[in-house]
């Protein structure tokens, strides 16, 4: 698990190793330093992620939002990025997250709703990749970070006490000792 978690820091760790500067949220290009690559609040207090890093994606987004004056400043210096982000924030705050998701669904511009955990379990890609599966009539997940597709190779969480006897037996307790523990409500 540590290896996977560390691999998720590839951009931040590379930034640090190349510059000796610890990345600060909102200050580096992929942590909110660019207006085209951040998370924006919508009218309903939910969020929309914008990842329009490539020029063609940025252009499409700006055109759809009627912010064409921002197109040429796509990768402008930080002060301009803040101005641009404020403009985007104001526009995106006019509608709910789901309204924007519908409005921008056909856009070739890497824009997506930020899901809560319940929504993430129902996300079509999460379901398709088998990251949440049904085993024994119960949902289980998440599946492994790397797999060949299909159903996640996990089982449901055990019921409370489901494996107590097996675990105690493996630990060397005899059947009579386990029965004694049960009679005293120890297990």
In short:
With 187 residues, the chain is an alpha+beta fold.
Can you characterise this structure?
With 187 residues, the chain is an alpha+beta fold. The protein has four domains: 31 residues, no CATH class; 83 residues, formyl-coa transferase, domain 3; 41 residues, no CATH class; 29 residues, no CATH class. Helices cover 41% and strands 10% of the residues. It has a three-stranded antiparallel β-sheet, with helices on one face. Strands 4-5 form a two-stranded antiparallel sheet. Strand 4 and strand 5 form a beta hairpin. The protein is elongated and about 80 Å long. The chain starts with a helix and ends with a helix. The model has no long low-confidence stretch (mean pLDDT 89).
SSE map:
Blueprint: H1 2-7, H2 10-19, E1 37-41, E2 47-51, H3 55-64, H4 78-92, H5 97-104, E3 111-113, H6 117-122, H7 124-128, E4 133-135, E5 138-140, H8 164-170, H9 175-183
Antiparallel strand pairs: 1-2, 2-3, 4-5
**Biggest sheet architecture:** 3 strands, antiparallel
Q: Give a count of the beta strands, DSSP E runs of length 2 or more.
A: 5
- List the helices and strands in order: HHEEHHHEHHEEHH
Strand content: 5-15%
**Rg, please?**
24 Å
Give the proportion of residues in helices.
40-55%
The CATH class designation of the largest domain is: Alpha Beta
Shape estimate: elongated
Going by helix content, strand content and strand pairing, the class is alpha+beta
CATH topology name of the largest domain = formyl-coa transferase, domain 3
> What's the tally of helices?
9
CATH superfamily of the largest domain: formyl-coa transferase, domain 3
Report the end-to-end length measured between terminal Cα atoms: 31 Å
Which regions have little confidence, pLDDT < 50, spanning 5+ residues? none
Q: Which strand order does the major sheet show?
A: 1-2-3
CATH 2nd-level architecture of the largest domain = 2-Layer Sandwich
* Total of domains: 4
Arithmetic mean of pLDDT: 89
């Amino acid at each position: 698990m540590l290896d996977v978690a560390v691999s998720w820091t590839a951009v931040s760790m590379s930034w640090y190793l190349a510059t000796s500067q610890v990345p600060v949220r909102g200050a580096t290009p992929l942590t909110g330093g660019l207006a085209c690559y951040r998370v924006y609040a919508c009218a309903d207090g939910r969020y929309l992620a914008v990842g329009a890093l490539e020029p063609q994606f940025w252009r499409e987004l700006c055109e759809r939002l009627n912010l064409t004056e921002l197109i040429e400043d796509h990768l402008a210096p930080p002060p301009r990025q803040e101005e641009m982000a404020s403009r985007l924030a104001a526009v995106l705050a006019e509608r709910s997250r789901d309204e924007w998701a519908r409005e921008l669904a056909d856009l070739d511009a890497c824009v997506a709703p930020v899901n809560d955990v319940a929504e993430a379990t129902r996300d079509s890609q999460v379901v398709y990749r088998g990251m949440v599966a049904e085993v024994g009539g119960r949902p289980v997940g998440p599946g492994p970070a790397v797999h060949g597709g299909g159903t996640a190779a996990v089982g449901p969480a055990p019921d409370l006490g489901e494996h107590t006897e097996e675990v105690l037996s493996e630990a060397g307790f005899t059947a009579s000792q386990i029965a004694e523990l049960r009679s005293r409500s120890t297990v």
